Structures are given as C-alpha cells and as structure tokens.
Description:
By secondary structure, this protein is an all-alpha fold. The chain has helices at about 1-15, 20-35, 40-80. The chain is rod-shaped, with a radius of gyration of 19 Å. About 85% of the residues lie in helices and about 0% in strands.
Amino acid sequence: MANEDKIEKDESMFKSKLYFNLREAVDEVKDSFQNGDAVDKAKSISKLLGKSAFNLAVFTGKVGVEVVKRLPEQLEKHKK
C-alpha cells in the first residue's frame, strides 16, 4: 500500500494545471520554420524556451516541497 502511495505522489509531480502544453509551442516553431520569416522564428523559439523554463521551475518547486516534507524523516534515519 505504501508503495502505491509513493507511485501516486511521483506521478502527481508530472501532472499540474500550471504546466504549459509544449506540443503547441513545438508546432508553432515547426510552422514558423516552414512559413515564417526570421522574426517569426525568433518569437516562436522564445515562446518555446520560456514555456520550457516555466515548466522546469514548476517541477523544481514541486520537488523542493517534497524534499522539505521528507527532510525530518530522512534526518531521523541518518541519526540512527
């Protein structure tokens, strides 16, 4: 049962309403490289990089919260 809870928590790390859909941004980059000029290419790449950075920040925040939650338990294990 505890293992199932851990798997469920791990999966929730990858699911969030805050994450941007990168598929749309990648499609926009593809379209701009096929049909756009240099400005369109730069804009679409910037959007993709920005959305990726934001998603990474959200994930890092979630991991940080989990680390802080588990810290007391890990410190107790380390003392023994």
